[in-house]
């Protein structure tokens, strides 16, 4: 697998919701190819609102966890 996918996420051309949605959808597609019933319950994010918006729109049931490092930065 890992076709155009780096560490679970494809590279985005721009740092906006449209491009991040495209990039994260690569992860979702590849994860479902490996395990069709895969539904993550949580995701650790950097705290950036755009990142959080994309995950919450893509996976409605997802719980967001703020990265420990980013809490203190």
Span of the ends, CA to CA: 35 Å
Shape: globular
What does the average pLDDT come to? 84
The arrangement of helices and strands along the chain is HEHEH
Please work out how many helical segments DSSP would assign: 3
Our estimate of the beta-strand percent is 5-15%
SS elements, strand count: 2
Largest sheet: 2 strands, parallel
As a percent range, the share of helical residues equals: 40-55%
Please mark out the parts with pLDDT under 50 across 5 or more consecutive residues, or reply none: none
Q: How large, in whole angstroms, is the Cα Rg? A: 12 Å
Spatial strand sequence of the major β-sheet: 1-2
Instruction: Give me the secondary-structure category.
Output: mainly alpha
Précis, in short:
With 73 residues, this protein is mainly alpha-helical. It has 3 helices and 2 strands, in the order H-E-H-E-H. The longest helix is centred in the middle third of the chain and has 18 residues.
How do the helices and strands line up, and which of them pair or pack?
Blueprint (H helix, E strand, L loop, with lengths): L16 H18 L7 E4 L3 H10 L4 E4 L1 H5 L1
Helix pairs in contact: 1-2
Task: Outline the structure in words.
By secondary structure, the chain is mostly helical. 45% of the residues lie in helices and 11% in strands. The chain contains 3 helices and 2 strands; from the N terminus they run H-E-H-E-H. The protein has helices at 17-34, 49-58, 68-72, and strands at 42-45, 63-66. Strands 1-2 form a two-stranded parallel ribbon. Helix 1 crosses helix 2 (49-58). The radius of gyration is 12 Å and the shape is globular.
